[in-house]
């Protein structure tokens, strides 16, 4: 029971962290476009954070500005996921897929990564105000779970293959 609560806590912390990185991504692009920090409005939007840039923000950079939140946040989570899957960072490389808590921690990190990439796509390419639409948020969750699950399973299979290569018949 404690383990499930811990997992749920990690899930929420990771989600909140991804949200923070998302907004930092927008802010970085704003600063790169010479918007002073003092002119960026920070606030709350529904259950999430939001940043608003002043109206003089260059139009040609708006698309990048919209993409940046999801892409930067998703990429930070992917790096974290990879770090947990690369040899120098892990002592025990033998993991059966889905059998260990570590696998599910990888899964929750990847879930939020896919969620952020999907939101970045919606925000940048579709220009959808996703945070205000419950249906789109549900769609993002429904999309992110199987995609991250399959990706996590594939990484585990590849990793196990690398760390435990199948023995081949020896021809002498
Ligand atoms: Zn955003």
Provide an overview of this structure:
With 172 residues, the chain is mainly alpha-helical. It has one domain (2-163). It has helices at residues 2-32, 62-83, 101-124, 134-163; strands at 41-45, 48-52. Strands 1-2 form a two-stranded antiparallel ribbon. Helix 1 packs antiparallel against helix 2, helix 1 packs parallel to helix 3 and helix 2 packs antiparallel against helix 3. The longest helix is centred in the first third of the chain and has 31 residues, at 2-32. Residues 22, 26, 69, 123 line the site of zinc ion.
Query: Structural class, from helix and strand content?
Result: mainly alpha
The overall average pLDDT, rounded, is 85
What is the strand tally? 2
**Oligomer category:** single chain
Could you tell me how far the N terminus lies from the C terminus, measured between alpha carbons in angstroms? 55 Å
**Attached small molecules:** zinc ion
**Total of DSSP H or I helical runs spanning 4+ residues:** 4
Q: Tell me the overall shape.
A: elongated
H/E topology pattern? HEEHHH
Radius of gyration: 19 Å
Q: Give the low-pLDDT segments.
A: none
Feature tags:
172 residues; binds zinc ion; two-stranded antiparallel sheet; single chain; elongated; mainly alpha
SSE diagram, text form:
Layout: H1 2-32, E1 41-45, E2 48-52, H2 62-83, H3 101-124, H4 134-163
Antiparallel strand pairs: 1-2
Helix pairs in contact: 1-2, 1-3, 2-3, 3-4
The structure holds zinc ion.
Residues 22, 26, 69, 123 line the site of zinc ion.
């Amino acid at each position: 029971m404690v383990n499930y609560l811990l997992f749920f806590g990690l899930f929420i912390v990771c989600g909140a962290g991804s949200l923070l990185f998302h907004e930092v991504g927008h802010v970085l692009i704003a600063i790169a476009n010479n918007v002073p920090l003092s002119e960026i409005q920070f606030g709350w939007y529904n259950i999430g954070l939001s940043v608003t840039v002043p109206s003089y923000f260059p139009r040609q950079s708006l698309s990048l500005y919209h993409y940046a939140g999801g892409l930067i946040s998703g990429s930070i989570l992917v790096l974290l996921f990879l770090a947990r899957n690369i040899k120098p960072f892990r002592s025990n490389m033998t993991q059966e897929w889905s059998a260990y808590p570590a696998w599910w921690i990888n899964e929750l990190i990847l879930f939020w990564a896919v969620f952020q990439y999907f939101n970045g796509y919606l925000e940048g390419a579709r220009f959808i105000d996703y945070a205000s639409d419950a249906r789109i948020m549900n769609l993002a969750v429904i999309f992110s779970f199987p995609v991250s699950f399959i990706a996590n399973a594939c990484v585990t299979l590849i990793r196990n293959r690398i760390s435990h290569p199948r023995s081949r018949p020896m021809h002498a």
